[in-house]
Design goal:
single chain; two-stranded antiparallel ribbon
């Protein structure tokens, strides 16, 4: 049987997760009503069961900034949303010039590395 402290901690974590899920459900539902069901980056359309792959991205990265007009949100597919949040990590891996970065191995392959150039 878990200790009283562990039970209290588990209860607190469960309550925090429930609160976060409710908060996210609120702004996600509003965003889905405000915006077309299209990824703001790759322009893929989502409907039916695939709609769960469309996420709400906070432009200022502040999940507490949820204006009713949706001005801090954009709908992104799970792949573009992940890429948006790893952009800073990727830029640290890229060389600053042609002579730099050759001795630093890449931590992983990035399928979105040249996506910005292709979209321009």
């Amino acid at each position: 049987m878990p200790s009283p402290d562990a039970m209290k901690q588990n209860s607190l974590v469960a309550a925090m997760r429930k609160e976060e899920d409710l908060r996210q459900a609120g702004y996600r539902e509003r965003a889905l009503k405000l915006f077309p069901h299209v990824c703001g980056r790759c322009a893929r359309e989502f409907e039916g069961r695939k709609l769960k792959e469309l996420t709400v991205h906070h432009r200022d990265h502040n999940h507490d900034n949820n204006p009713l007009d949706g001005s801090n949100w954009e709908l992104l597919c799970i792949y573009c949303h992940d890429h948006e949040h790893t952009r800073g990590v990727q830029s640290e891996r890229l060389p600053d010039g042609p002579s730099q970065g050759t001795d630093r191995p890449s931590l992983s392959h990035s399928p979105f590395a040249a996506l910005g150039d292709k979209l321009r």
